[in-house]
Design goal:
The protein is α+β, with helices and mostly antiparallel strands and 134 residues long. The protein has a domain of 73 residues. It is built from four helices and four strands; from the N terminus they run H-E-E-H-H-E-E-H. It has a four-stranded antiparallel sheet with strand order 1-2-3-4, covered by helices on one side. A hairpin with a 2-residue loop joins strand 1 and strand 2. The protein starts with 29 loop residues before the first helix and ends with a helix. The mean pLDDT is 83.
C-alpha cells in the first residue's frame, strides 16, 4: 500500500484550459463591392487621387439593391470603398463590421473609484480651491 501525502478527497481535478475563440467576420463579397461601385451616391474626395464611395441610408432601402444583395444588403452600411481615380481601380475596401459574438465592441472600459480614490480627489479639489482663494 502506498501512502500519499494528502488523501484523494483533497485533490482537485485539473481545470481544462479553454482556448479563446477567434471571431471572424466574412469579408465583403464581390457582389457587395459591385453594388457599392454601381449605386454609391456619396463620394468624398479625400485627396491624393482617392475618393471614398459609400451608399447612403436612403439609397440602401432601394428594392433593386436589397433584392440583388439578399441578406448581405445589411452590410452596405458597414462597407466603403476607396477608389483610386488615377488608376481607375479599388485602392482599399474599408469594412467597419462588428464581429458577431463580441459584446460592446466599441464600448469604453468602465470602472468604479474606491473610497480611498474618492477621498484623494476630494482632497485635491480642496487644495486647488485653497490655492485659487489665497
Amino acid at each position: 500500500m502506498t501512502i500519499l501525502p494528502y488523501p484523494k478527497s483533497r485533490r482537485r481535478p485539473a481545470k481544462q484550459k479553454v482556448a479563446p475563440v477567434a471571431v471572424v467576420v466574412a469579408p465583403p463579397s464581390g457582389t457587395l463591392l459591385n453594388a457599392i461601385l454601381s449605386y454609391a451616391d456619396i463620394s468624398e474626395d479625400i485627396g491624393g487621387g482617392l475618393t471614398l464611395l459609400r451608399v447612403s441610408a436612403k439609397r440602401m432601402d432601394d428594392p433593386v439593391i436589397t433584392q440583388s444583395l439578399g441578406r448581405e444588403a445589411a452590410r452596405l452600411a458597414d462597407v466603403s470603398i476607396l477608389w483610386n481615380d488615377d488608376e481607375s481601380e479599388i485602392h482599399t475596401v474599408l469594412d467597419a463590421a462588428i464581429p458577431s459574438g463580441v459584446e460592446d465592441f466599441w464600448a469604453e472600459p468602465q470602472f468604479e473609484l474606491t473610497d480611498l480614490a474618492m477621498a484623494y480627489l476630494d482632497e485635491m479639489l480642496e487644495t486647488e480651491a485653497r490655492a485659487k482663494a489665497g
